[in-house]
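Input for the complex:
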Amino acid sequence: MSAPSLPRSSIAVIVNGLPGAMGMQVSKACLARGLVLAPAALTGPGMPVSVNVDSHTVALVDATAPGAIDTMRACVAELKAKGLTPIAIDFTHPSAVNKNADMYNALGLPFVMGTTGGDREQLLKSTREAGTPAVIAPNMCKQIVAFQAMMKHMAETYPGAFEGYTLRVEESHQKTKADTSGTAKAVVESLGALVKKPMPERDIKKLRTDADSASFGVPREHLDGHAYHTYRLTSGDGSVTFEFKHNVNGRSTYAEGVADAVIFLADRVAAGKERRVYDMIDVLRSGAML
Amino acid sequence: MSAPSLPRSSIAVIVNGLPGAMGMQVSKACLARGLVLAPAALTGPGMPVSVNVDSHTVALVDATAPGAIDTMRACVAELKAKGLTPIAIDFTHPSAVNKNADMYNALGLPFVMGTTGGDREQLLKSTREAGTPAVIAPNMCKQIVAFQAMMKHMAETYPGAFEGYTLRVEESHQKTKADTSGTAKAVVESLGALVKKPMPERDIKKLRTDADSASFGVPREHLDGHAYHTYRLTSGDGSVTFEFKHNVNGRSTYAEGVADAVIFLADRVAAGKERRVYDMIDVLRSGAML
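Predicted:
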């Protein structure tokens, strides 16, 4: 971490998306880093009124109910009155991304947006206009973000370096994930430039059954939560093979990345930095590592 | 290739190191690209007087015999008299690297040095002082060179991005290779910066028996000529694994890289470029691809 950093015990995280699995993991990761867990959080309709995380109880506020913003405003004010710097973390639902961001912007509440989907352009635009400090990142795993950036750099620096090579891409995720991996799509764009032959998204082999995922090497206990990617480049004559893999079991690496992003953002808030909207590359560059 | 390039049929390669396996492969790769194979080449003591490559006969000149330089001077003059641009290719022996380079420099003969070992600093110094155009590269596989450059870039841009990860490196080569892979050493240096913990060379696992190499996935027919590398990064909690592999069977990719380097160098000679000593990164950047 950079030198003038905020004490971790003065940062309070409002973990919107509790009691979801990602919200739970993120809350625990933040507590393990010494951050404070705010006593209230936004959730969706039909959820329980509160949830326990370790020894902490968090009241759950239905984001779609009237007055939700007033409850959150009171929560933020209370945290600030205690001398804490509140940061919202969002792991909710694609349909809530823009509405939640509007609320953070209205409250001037810095946030880490880990939820994917929604209108991303509008999200960036409204956050920039509001001037709310935020980390907006569709993938919170810093190492995968670094890998993606590295492949992009190679493609830009040595386009065609792998001309004549054939490309094969497989990715496995829990069977509830319908769409193609966003990371795979981004990496395939770089690989297409390296082999001088763009690969259409339909050629990315998606594994979405327990049987296929297990054959791909996913441990049984992670069939319902994993992200495995294998990119293979083979030379025209078959004599050379390159293979790049990144395999993630469970959610802990994303939760750790969120905690990094929160600490990064709190420091930027404390330092009164002018630039407001960040991504995980900024977090990586800051050296705000675990 | 860049626009104003020399016709391939006007480039003559003097393949020093024939009748060695690498010399043979390189000769064939150059012929396949339409280059001319010079009728003489340097070799070591105790070799036959000539060798056939496809339908071509190449006279072999013992580089350690008196008068070797005069024979080569005559060969170069003869090629030039035919309107050809002569380029020497060196796949000889570590002990011959500096002596051969001295000869190329004395003759003003552009060269591609593929032989490893020798006094590399002296090699660069004497070649720069002589002003001889040369490509000096310990690894002629452009894709591996690009991969190495990419890892170096990631380590320099995001040092510590993989802090807390453990590193495991295995490489397999034919059993006659005594030392540790130079590529593995270079990549391990970058990976050490990424995990913030340098890995000593002795921790690179070297596989050098047919049985170990076969278990590592090397096909039987390539046990006597292969270069397999696997780098694995595992997060502290074991939930995330990154794996990078580059596996080469036989020598064709290096031979193709040499042919690329020759064409690149001949173009630079023809264009009268000021900068004289190049490496494979320069060849890559030029886009002089297969």
